[in-house]
Specification:
30% helix, 335 residues, binds 1,6-di-O-phosphono-alpha-D-fructofuranose, 5-stranded mixed sheet, alpha+beta, globular, 17 strands, 2 domains, Fructose-1,6-Bisphosphatase, Chain A, domain 1
Length: 335
C-alpha cells in the first residue's frame, strides 16, 4: 500500500475538502521548520545547542539556546512565502512583522517554538506548538500589524498542531476535521501518516498534574485530586495512575494516544495570573486538537476555545483530555 505523506494528505484535503492552497503551503512550511528544529534538538551537546542564553523572554523565563534557535527557524521559514500577515511567539514580546520586501498573506501564525524547554538539557521530549488564525480585514491599513489582530477566540483557529521531538519525531495536525498523526521518516525526510482518526477514550484512569503545587491549589482542584488519590475505596471507585513530563506536548501526546487528564490549574502563588500556561500558543491549539479527537478542554468554568483573549501572552488554567474527567473537575468548580 502506498504511503500517505503529509504533502499528499494536504493536496488531497485541497482537492476534496477545499483546504485553501495557501493554508496547505503554510502547514508544509511549518512542518519543514519542525524537521529543522528536530535536527537541531537531536544534536544535543554535539551541536553546542544545550544550555541557557543570558536573556529572558517576555514571561521573565530564562531562554534556552534551543528556544532562541527554534524561534529563528520558524520566523525565517515563514516570513518570505507570502502566506502570512504576521506571527507571534512565546519568545517575542510583540507581534512579528513580515518584512516589507515580502508579500503578505491571509493568515496569522502563533507558536511556542520549543515547549517544555526545561527538559532539553536532560534529554526528555520537547515540542513545537502552533495555531493558525485568519488575519482580520485591516481595511486597507498597510501599517504594522498590532496585537489586536491576534486576539481571536480559539474557535476561530483554522488549523493547529504540534511536533513532538521524542524517541520519534511526530507531527499531530488538525484542520478542523479530526486529528491526523505523521511520523518523520528520517530516510525519506518526509512526515508519513501513521495515525489516522485519533480518538481520546472518554474514560480514563490516568491523570497529569504538578503535585508539588498542591498546597497552592484552589478548593475544587484539591477535592478532585484527593478523590483521585483515594482510588478504589474513594468516591470515584477506581485506582488512578499519575504521570507528569513537564512538557505539555508530551503529556498531551500521551493523552491523544491512550487517554488521560492534563491539569494546570490556577493557584494562589500569583493570584493575579489565571494559571501558568499561555492561552494563544499552548491552551488554544491543544484544546482544538483535543476536541477534534473527541476530548474536552476547559479552564474550570468555561470551554477554553470560547475564551476571548485580551492579550497575546495571556495565561489560563487548563483541564483537558478524556471527557468524563474534564467534565467532573469542571463541575466541581461550578458547585
Ligand atoms: P517551559 O517551556 O518553560 O519548560 O514550560 C513548559 C510548560 O509551559 C508546559 O509545557 C508544562 O506542562 C509546564 O510548563 C510545566 O510546568 P512545571 O514547571 O510546573 O512542571
Amino acid at each position: 500500500m502506498s504511503r500517505v505523506t503529509l504533502s499528499r494528505y494536504l493536496i488531497e484535503q485541497t482537492r476534496c475538502n477545499n483546504t485553501p492552497a495557501d493554508l496547505r503551503f503554510l502547514i508544509e512550511v511549518v512542518a519543514r521548520a519542525c524537521k529543522e528544529i528536530s535536527h537541531a534538538v537531536s544534536k544535543g551537546a554535539l551541536g553546542g545547542v544545550l544550555g541557557s542564553m543570558e536573556t529572558e523572554n517576555v514571561q521573565g523565563e530564562v531562554q534556552k539556546k534551543l528556544d532562541v534557535i527554534s524561534n529563528e527557524i520558524l520566523l525565517e521559514a515563514n516570513e518570505w512565502g507570502g502566506h502570512l500577515a504576521g506571527m507571534a511567539s512565546e519568545e517575542m514580546d510583540n507581534a512579528y512583522q513580515i518584512p516589507g520586501k515580502y508579500p503578505k498573506g491571509a493568515y496569522l501564525l502563533v507558536f511556542d517554538p520549543l515547549d517544555g524547554s526545561s527538559n532539553i538539557d536532560v534529554n526528555v521530549s520537547v515540542g513545537t506548538i502552533f495555531s493558525v488564525l485568519r488575519c482580520p480585514d485591516r481595511n486597507g491599513n498597510d501599517g504594522d500589524l498590532g496585537e489586536e489582530a491576534f486576539l481571536q477566540p480559539g474557535t476561530e483557529q483554522v488549523a493547529a498542531g504540534y511536533a513532538i521531538y521524542g524517541p520519534q519525531t511526530m507531527l499531530m495536525l488538525t484542520l478542523g476535521d479530526g486529528v491526523k498523526g505523521f511520523t518523520l521518516d528520517r530516510e525519506l525526510g518526509s512526515f508519513v501518516m501513521t495515525h489516522d482518526n485519533i480518538r481520546i477514550p472518554e474514560k480514563t484512569a490516568e491523570f497529569a498534574i504538578n503535585m508539588s503545587n498542591q498546597r497552592h491549589w484552589e478548593a475544587p482542584v484539591s477535592r478532585y485530586v484527593d478523590e483521585l488519590l483515594a482510588g478504589k475505596s474513594g468516591p470515584l471507585g477506581k485506582d488512578y495512575n499519575m504521570r507528569w513530563v513537564a512538557a505539555m506536548v508530551a503529556d498531551v501526546h500521551r493523552i491523544l494516544t491512550r487517554g488521560g487528564l492534563f491539569m494546570y490549574p490556577r493557584d494562589s502563588r500569583e493570584p493575579e495570573k489565571p494559571g501558568k500556561l499561555r492561552l494563544m500558543y499552548e491552551a488554544n491549539p491543544m484544546s482544538f486538537i483535543v476536541e477534534q479527537a473527541g476530548g474536552a478542554a476547559t479552564n474550570g468554568s468555561q470551554r477554553i476555545l470560547d475564551i476571548q483573549p485580551t492579550s497575546l501572552h495571556q495565561r489560563v488554567a487548563v483541564f483537558l483530555g478524556s471527557k468524563e474527567e474534564v467534565e467532573r473537575v469542571t463541575a466541581y468548580h461550578q458547585e
